[in-house]
Each structure stands twice: as C-alpha cells, then as structure tokens.
C-alpha cells in the first residue's frame, strides 16, 4: 500500500467524468487500498479515485470517529436509487479544495446501489453525515466539486486563493 498525491483545484483531471469499472479485480483492490491509506493519512472521511488521478468510479469512505475502530467502506460503480426530498445542510470540506469550507445542502437521505471490495452487489440506506459524504464523493465521479454549488463570486474567490497558494507553494 502507498500514500498517493491528492490533486487539488484548479486541476482539469478533477473535472473528468470517471468510467465504470468492468470487474473488481486485484488491480481495483490495490487501488482501493492505496486510496484508503491516502485518505487516512490526509485525515479525510472519503476519497474518490479521481482525486489521486485515476478516472474510475471507485470511492472509499470511513466516517467513524474512533481512530482505533476503523470502519472502511468501499463503493464501486455506485448509483443513487432514491433521494429524500427533505434536505439537510452540512459544512463541507474537500481534500481537493484544501482549507476551504462551506455550508452545502443536499438530500438528507439516499439509497445507494454499488459493488463492494469483493465485487458483491450491495445496497446502502444512508442518512446524516454518511448521506452527505456519499453524495459529495459521487459528485467527484461526475467532475463536480462542492464549490460548484456556491455563488460565482464565492467560487471564483476560492479558486483564485488556491491558484495563488499553488504558485507560491504555500498552503494556508
Ligand atoms: O474529509 C472530508 N470531509 C467532508 C466533510 C463534509 C462533507 C464532505 C466531506 S468529504 C472530505 C474528503 C473529500 O474531499 N472527499 O472527496
Ligand atoms: Ni472531496
């Protein structure tokens, strides 16, 4: 397993639409292992493959609070089956949009169909942070970042800040 570099905005790769996985094999499992290690080392609760530059529809997540009780989750080719009409707001952050946070509202519950680490079909009924996080991650598969939901002004201010930090190699 190895820790990979997480791509940050602005980066065209992050805007790419990820491709469905045809088979959950050794290569995909190794990718999921690297993604999980990369996510943990960055103290994130979720990571999409495209964030380490791989355009495959794969997500890893762990929303457990206790560091000693890890609860890794793996999602391959996830599809949202049902979305609640009720919405809830969370302060979101993104490892690809470092040090920026904003309140984003999304459907408060959803049902997700996916393949697990072993390629078995699963269904997850999610609510709370789990629902928010899976929707945030699934946006990455479509090349969408949470800042896309902000006003043009707020979004451009964030991108400007990130570009500046990149060019000076200072992370604020
Ligand atoms: O670590 C993360 N925290 C987070 C907090 C609120 C809503 C979504 C997230 S996901 C984010 C990791 C990440 O960027 N995943 O793509
Ligand atoms: Ni993200």
Name a few traits of the molecule:
binds ligand GNR, Peptide Deformylase, two-stranded antiparallel sheet, binds nickel (II) ion, alpha+beta, 172 residues
Brief summary of the model shown:
This protein has 172 residues and is α+β, with helices and mostly antiparallel strands. It is 27% helix and 30% strand. Residues 94-96, 136, 140 line the site of nickel (II) ion (NI).
Question: Would you kindly provide a written description of the structure presented here, covering whatever features stand out?
Answer:
The mean pLDDT is 96. The chain starts with 25 loop residues before the first helix and ends with a helix. A hairpin with a 2-residue loop joins strand 4 (87-94) and strand 5 (97-107). The strands form two sheets. The protein has a five-stranded antiparallel sheet. It is α+β, with helices and mostly antiparallel strands and 172 residues long. The chain has a single domain (12-168), classed as Peptide Deformylase (Alpha-Beta Complex), CATH 3.90.45. Helix content is 27%, strand content 30%. The longest helix has 17 residues, at 152-168. The chain is built from three helices and seven strands; from the N terminus they run αβββββββαα. The protein has helices at 26-41, 128-141, 152-168; strands at residues 46-48, 58-61, 73-83, 87-94, 97-107, 109-115, 121-127. The structure holds ligand GNR and nickel (II) ion. Ligand GNR is lined by residues 44-48, 51, 90, 92-96, 132-133, 136-137, 140.
């Amino acid at each position: 397993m190895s820790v990979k570099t997480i791509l940050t905005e602005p980066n065209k790769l992050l805007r790419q639409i990820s491709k469905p996985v045809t088979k959950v094999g050794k290569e995909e499992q190794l990718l999921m292992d690297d993604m999980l290690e990369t996510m943990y080392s960055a103290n994130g609760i979720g990571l999409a493959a495209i964030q380490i530059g791989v355009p495959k529809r794969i997500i890893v997540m762990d929303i457990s609070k206790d560091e000693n009780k890890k609860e890794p989750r793996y999602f391959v080719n996830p599809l949202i089956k049902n979305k609640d009409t009720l919405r809830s707001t969370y302060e979101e952050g993104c490892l690809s949009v470092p040090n920026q946070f904003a309140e984003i509202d999304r459907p408060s519950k959803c049902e997700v169909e996916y393949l697990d680490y072993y390629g078995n079909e699963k269904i997850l009924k999610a609510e709370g942070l789990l629902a928010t996080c899976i929707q945030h991650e699934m946006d990455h598969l479509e090349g969408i970042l949470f800042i896309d939901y902000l006003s043009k002004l707020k979004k451009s201010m964030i991108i400007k800040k990130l570009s500046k930090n990149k060019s000076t190699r200072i992370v604020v």
